[in-house]
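User: Hi! Is it possible to get a structure for several chains at once, not just one? Here's what I have:
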Amino acid sequence: MLGYTIRRLLATIPVIGMVALFVFCLLYLTPGDPAAVIAGDIATVDDIERIRHQLGLDQAFLPRFWVWASAVLRGDLGISIFTNLPVTQLIAQRIGPTLSLASCTLIVAVLVAVPMGVIGAWKAGKLIDRLVMLFSVAGFSMPVFVLAYVLIYVFAIDLDWLPVQGYVPLQDGFWPWLSHLILPSIALGTIYIALIARITRAAMLEVLAQDYVRTAHAKGLAPSAVLMRHALKNAAVPIVTIIGIGIALLISGVVVTESVFAIPGIGRLTVDAILRRDYPIIQGVILLFSTIYVLVNLAVDLSYRFFDPRIQY
Amino acid sequence: MSAKTRSALLALWFLFAAPAGSLMVPSALAQQKTLKFVPEADLRSLDPIWTTAYITRNYGYMVYDTLFAVNDKFEVQPQMVDKWRLSDDKLSYTFSLRDGLKWHDGQPVKSSDCIASIERWAKRDALGQKLADLTEGWTVVDDKTFTLKLKKPFPLTLDALAKPSSNVPFIMPERVAKTDAFTQITESIGSGPFKMVKEEWVPGNKVVFVKNTDYVPRQEPPSWAAGGKTVKVDRVEWVYIPDSATAAAALNAGEVDWWQMVPPDLVPLLAKNKDIKVENTDPLGSIGILRFNQLHPPFNNAKMRQALLYLVNQQDYALAIAGDPKQGKPCPSFFTCGSPAESKVGSEILTGKRDLAKAKQLIAEAGYKGEKIVVLSATDQPIVHSQGLVTMELLKAAGLNAELAANDWGTLINRRAVREPIDKGGWSIFHTWLVGPDMTNPAINYPMRGVGEKSWFGWPTDPKMEELRNAWFDATDPSQQQQLIDAMQKHAWETVPFIPTAQFVIPTAYRSNVSGLLISPVAFLWNVEKK
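Assistant: Yes, the chains can be modeled jointly so their relative placement is included. Here is the combined structure:
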């Protein structure tokens, strides 16, 4: 297992290298650059050319890639063209809110969705199962921003229970931190609850039809013990897989949620950087995302062995 | 209790209870008067000379000060300058700085700082370049006195030093102002009424300023960028909220105090809340612009551009941009309506009956052969996009082969810099808008210029327009200046460098416990109180 983990970690290096090259090529080939954005509305083409030259954007592909790639190898993601701040500093500023939002969303999603799916499977075909399915369909169908506005209107404006927007770091207090994350987590988490609940229900239905489950019932075990100890553990592999995929999807989902709730996270940093063509930030963030993807996939693969000892690496 | 359980409980306490406990400690911040302000855009750059972005200009007004400033009567008033005099031959200005000017690091503001700042600004700003062309030299007399020697009299010298909008000649410390004008500065040390707290700056989210307690305001009442800049709060937080519905909700809930620019569709929602005031505080508003590419067919032909003058209905554009007749109105002038330069010469071409037949006749005379017309638009800029949609309807009504290229603003401003024909990525028309102060006289009205490739995007070549502009620079008599402005406008109706589409105001909204907002083209934060 250790050997497998090391091999997988080593394999991430060429993957991230390829991602870096791909992203650099993509940005290089995309028409336009930040010089026009910097120059502003009242500028001339000469102003733009001069800024382009100053930023080195008029250089050929290879010298530019070499400068960037060699800096990345030294752990330097570069300086934001607009804010003049190091990309690592900007990411460090933004990672906290995004991690907080993503973890709260995942916790909410798993805590709600897995029991929903289990109950749905257990009471398959009954009213409660139909309600679970109804929620799943509704959760999939409701766009994040619509739900977000509804939640803001009801809980922040009408009832005045929770703040509308913003983010407060955990060190400024637990409740201020949590209160700013409740609505965004529900808005973002609903689709994941729907997704995980459906997969859990399907996996559980398959497992509940197995002979060993019938045997467990025949032994006189309590239904809860059968469900939790025998069925859920054996249904865990697809559930963990979908949670892993959910983490990847979450990264794209936070973009909308962070914009609606004005949370200064990585998602908004990425969108803002794309809109103004701030290349060092875009490249840095995509490298970060690809690393997270690779590590999450590795963690999911490794967790299979915990749930199913038959799996060998 | 096992050791494992105890450790887990301890970890939980650290995670949850300890931070929660911090709520019990009264924060020093809570004692301060903090004004939470939602600005028009995210502050991306700290160099108001490096970029012309209005948000950076507004930041500049917080942190820096200017030698002179314009008041609400368009009069130039001394600001950092205490006294000034002009020699009899009108070639030499002497400026004395007022007492008590200090940088945010406590050092005194010196003459050399002012000279270095003006020289850097003059390398980027068109009016500054004009001043630099006529400058023989700057001389430091002493720490608080300096002179400007001109090659020939330039009546607009003080107007240049008081330029109210981008690029504003802000005064910076000499070591900062020595930075190349095309390289962004990194420091935020000014002598203005606010200090930026750079450690709390989160780009894309929050900019924090505190009151500069060393700042000595002038005694005169505040008027635009002139007069006493008295700060009446301890701290200002610019909270950037990209989503307008969220910003409205935040203002409704009292999470922010002042939202600078409210989209027209959200005004009725905010107006329902008795704790919120919605007002127009910008006396000049902004001017919508329809700009042609004069390098390529079909708009390299003046008759094609003239044809659109008979189609454009400024009421339609005003309504499309502002959504409410109270916020938008026609402005049939190439110079900002409401400013002294507003001209009514030839305006009937835009105010008269719209004449599709006349437009079609001009299009036929221009020999239009169905060439493709590409109208650039930016869907993330409602003011730009709404103009683009109206223009598309006009072009289609006139039977022109028009296509809307709708992208984001970043793409638009890159594509409009392309001088190639349409089949090589070029364009025919784009829209934008400029704030009123940017079009109040020929010196700063860049879309009027006709210097070919050195012109603003669209690149008209118009020697007569340049001749009139240069004559205006040399004119000393206000009536002579206005005659030249009228002549420029008369000529512009023939050459049509652009079409002003409407004049509009974006309303501002604030909580009723906020007062003292200045009526001004820029949202200044001095004089604003919060109860």
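DSSP finds 13 helices and no strands in chain A. Chain A touches chain B through 56 residues (CB under 8 Å).

User: Great, thank you!
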